Amino acid sequence: MTQVFGNDEWAVILGASSGFGEATGLELASRGLNICGIHLDRRGTMPHVEEVINAIQKTGRHALFFNINAADEEKRREAIESLKSQVGGSFVRVLLHSLAFGTLKPLVAGSAEDELNAAQMNMTLDVMANSLVYWVQGLMRAGLLREGSRVFAMTSLGSTVAAGSYGAVSAAKSALESHIRQLTLELAGRGITFNAIRAGVTNTPSLQKIPGHEKMMEAALAKNPSGRLTTPIDVARAIATLSHPDTYWLTGNIINVDGGEMIVGTK
Q1: Domains in the chain, ordered, with CATH?
Q2: Where are the alpha helices (DSSP H) in 14-87?
Q3: Do 61 and 119 meet the contact criterion of CB atoms below 8 Å apart?
Q4: For the chain, what percentages of helix, strand and coil (3-state, to nearest 5) are there?
Q5: 225-257 residue pLDDT tens
Q6: Is 191 helix (H, G, I), strand (E, B) or coil?
Q7: CA 260 → CA 51, 72, 224, 227, distances in Å?
Q8: pLDDT score recorded for residue 3
């Protein structure tokens, strides 16, 4: 793989321990970027986090990981300060927002306990959408995002299509896409690009938490003209390619990475 990034440049991956975040961190490391991984894992899944860190280090890149809530203001500030001390005079080439931590409940149910409440709604939007803005703000203040930086956010078809128990996450994905547009408007003049990545249905840990995900996978597989489901590495390679310096004029978009899945109607 031809290296196009400087050895001292970094990627910040929000949601680095699994799914799209894990795959993208490994792919970017293989192409020359050091990885700052933000993740939230309990003791049972920490061995896998160590495997990810070791895999990054085997590429010869640095791996700086923080097991924190990405939406916690103080923890975010501490992580950015620590990253800045590591980066030196370089910068963050790539910021990927791939956080999947929200409440999957219907908006209206037979009892208050079974339906989405205000705290759950606010938490889902804060983690899965608004945190993108806060990380951009913090990295900008630290001087780590600058001309040439590429910012990506993982969205989904749920931003425009309703699904059972997906209301809060759907709202978050819609807000996330809105944030991408607004950040593009405000920062395009500084040479920083912002794009939302809309992957096809992908068998990730976050998908498996959605009620009825098996039927979602079956339907996607049946209609995908490429004959298979999207994989995390498909998305990681697309993000790595879109992070190239030559993509400076590509910003403010929702980009499908799905093998053509979303151009085909329901079969």
Answers
A1: 10-260 (3.40.50.720)
A2: 19-30, 46-58, 73-87
A3: no
A4: 50, 15, 35
A5: 999 999 999 999 999 999 999 999 999 999 999
A6: coil
A7: 32, 37, 6, 10
A8: 59
